[in-house]
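step=encode ok
step=design start
structure_in=
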């Protein structure tokens, strides 16, 4: 009759070992990728941070969040603090996204 052929013991051992190895690699990969995002934004008066932001042509909440490992909400608040401090200037914005540039 039809159907899958029964594997020998050696073939079953190899298949199980391969499956275990793949699961182990998958667990290691997911454990490395997860990292906690910061809730507290960096100090807006720190010269190193301001210099790094001035190197960028355009500042959006996403670029700041990815650069400093922040949440988007924290990055938006951080950019608003910088705007109040006169470090960045609002170029364009809507209720969804705001685009800033560094003041020279």
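sequence_out=
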């Amino acid at each position: 009759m039809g159907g899958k052929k029964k594997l020998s013991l050696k073939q079953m051992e190899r298949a199980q070992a391969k499956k275990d190895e793949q699961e182990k690699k998958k667990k290691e990969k997911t454990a490395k990728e997860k990292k906690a995002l910061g809730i507290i934004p960096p100090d807006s008066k720190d010269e190193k941070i301001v210099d790094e932001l001035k190197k960028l042509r355009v500042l959006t909440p996403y670029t700041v969040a990815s650069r400093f490992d922040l949440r988007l909400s924290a990055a938006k608040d951080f950019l608003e603090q910088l705007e109040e401090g006169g470090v960045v200037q609002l170029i364009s914005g809507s209720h969804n996204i705001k685009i800033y540039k560094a003041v020279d």
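step=design ok
step=annotate ok -> The two ends are 80 Å apart (CA to CA).
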